[in-house]
Amino acid sequence: MLRLEKRASPSRAWGMATPLLAVVLTMIAGGIMFAILGKNPVEAIRTIFWDPLFNPQFAAYSRPQLLVKAGPLILIAVGLSLGFRAGIWNIGAEGQYIVGAITGAAVGLAFYPTEAWFIFPLMVISGAIGGLLWAMIPAVLRTAFRTNEILVSLLLVYVAQSLLSSMALGALRNPQGGGFPGSRNLSQYPAAANPELIAGTGMHWGVVAAFIAVIFAYILLQRHMLGFSIRLAGQAPRAARYAGVSPTRLVILCLGISGALAGLAGLFEVSGPAGQISIDFASGYGFTAIIVAFLGRLNPVGILLAGLLMALTYIGGELAQFMLGLPAAAIQAFQGMLLFFLLAVDLLSNYRIRLGGAK
Amino acid sequence: MDLGGINPAVLIASLMVASVPIMLAALGELVVEKAGVLNLGVEGMMIIGAVMGFAVAVNTGSPLAGFLGGAAGGAILSLVFALLTQYLLANQVATGLALTLFGLGLSSLIGQGYVGIRPPLTGALPFGPLADIPVIGRILFRHDWMVYFSLLMVAATWAVLKFTRIGLILRAVGENHDAAHALGYKVRRIRVLAICFGGAMAGLGGAYVSLIRVPQWTDGITSGAGWIALAIVVFASWKPWRVLLGAYLFGGITVLQLNLQAAGARIPVEYLSMSPYLITILVLVIMSSGRGRIAAAAPAALGKNFHASR
Fold it and tell me: N or C, which terminus of chain B has less Cβ within 10 Å?
């Protein structure tokens, strides 16, 4: 009989090894899924994980895409990880991402066609505030009325999606767009555009912001009192209470930071890679970022690596769709599977597996 | 705007239909939560139920087989949740989210070949002359069998939880798993069964969406119904009859906003389609702030993992 024995403290070695183990297990299970779909599993896995980076035919296009896709994922996931550590579950990042994009783009469009240096910074601020305010709804409801923040933040995603289509069809629609839904293209409006900073790298302001967020989160968690409070509240809520950590303040801060970062990600996306507010602007980054946060074990550096890996599955998935006819949904299922395996192998870092019955 | 075109009897009849999926899913989740498990994967299980139910019904030509297939799909996916949370002791919130993310992906993968097909129709139960009674006949006696089945399930869940030994054991496990374990009840086994029941009910609700309510297959067809079902369990303070009330309230709002859209109300369509989610949030706020504190009604061991150290 197998028996589980709780470790006194989580194993560090397994903590590092479990994400890798989960990726390998997902590749095996994913391979089986691809085989069921009638694709060669080895070829599919190679197309997803190897070709975008190293195949000379595609690398020139794919490599810059890595940062473009990883930027928003990392930015959102870093914010989410703070809350997840403290047991505050903001799962509505997708909504905050959409609202940040709307408020940011609205500011930019309001100035059209003025050319001034301050427009883009103003958009950045307004995008962050948009995401922040959207996240304040579950935060305030939780602190004032004890309403469950998981359900409220998630339900607000659907509200944000309706708001997005209303904006794309109404208030923010391009007056010169011939009646088609969608706003003016911000990436063609220099004062409001978020261009590629270094040609051929995919580096844009959103990626820069993501790197800064990783550094800040690292310092916050390792060196700052707030970071300590967050970790304490997650590991020992009662001890945190006695130590004078205010749960209200923590909820407001964690949801606020994650909302602002998600809003930023939305703004950088709408002014750069996406270019405009359109009905299909919401691409699910807010949900995938949850997987990224867990894959990075809620650690800022881990999230950086996890974001790059997850970005690779997006790009590789598109390539596999194009080359092998692998359905886009297969990649989504593949990413979901990764989270399952992560959660499953996490057992190894918290428990020892012993053979034999009870003592 | 032409509000005169909205017939109250038709409105009530269609709200009964609209509330079936969330009622079934919420009842299932209620049993799961009564056993002390928080499964946030209802949306994922519903959509798998929707696609499995649709696929089975189209391939066999039988709606009944479709519903069974939907229930089986939801139950199988819920077993993944059971394995992860009950045996591998994974975090229940994160695992539930994983279930939803995976379910959404897998369902659109399975559903690829089924876009644009119409499923076999489920007719209304024949009540003979009863169906011709003015108003009442339209409201009560012209529905498909699933509407009556869902009402029956409300009563059955209530009766089993309140009056039977199984219900008592289930609640004991949900209130204090250590005490239940000490009394010799198999906490894990009971919870796995509850999770499986919850999955089957969510799957059934999903199948109702794709087979009767819509009826066709499109990606993301459940559009948040699973999350609303979770909210309704909180709204209902874990009481089956209040699930009925919550589901009807939500169904009513959905139907009303659809009717307003059709009647050409001045409010833009997008704002109308937000309303069910906004009202769900509002109801959650009222329920959690009012005199009847929900915290007191929630099963004590909700969301806590059980690991028998001895």
Answer: C
Both structure tokens of B95: 């695992």
Domains and CATH numbers, chain A: 40-325 (1.10.3470)
List domains and CATH numbers for chain B.
Answer: 8-293 (1.10.3470)
pLDDT in tens, A76-87: 999 999 999 998
Q: Which residues of B touch A294 (CB under 8 A)?
A: 94
Q: Is the predicted pLDDT of residue A359 greater than 50, yes or no?
A: no
Alpha helices in chain B (DSSP H): 8-34, 42-60, 63-82, 92-110, 136-140, 145-163, 165-175, 177-182, 187-208, 225-235, 240-262, 269-289, 294-297
Q: In whole angstroms, give the CA distance from residue A98 to residue A86.
A: 25
pLDDT band (50, 70, 90) for residue A64: confident
DSSP state, residue A198? B
- The C-alpha atoms of residue A277 and residue A282 are separated, in whole angstroms, by 9
B220-236 pLDDT per residue, tens: 888 889 999 999 998 88
Hey, is the C-beta of B258 within 8 angstroms of any chain A C-beta?
no
* pLDDT at res. A254: 94
The ipTM, to two decimals, is 0.87
In the DSSP assignment, the letter for residue A301 is: H
Closest by Cβ to B289, choosing from A146, A294, A330: A146
| Chain A residues with CB-CB distance to B293 below 8 A | 146
At A131, list the tokens. 């995401």
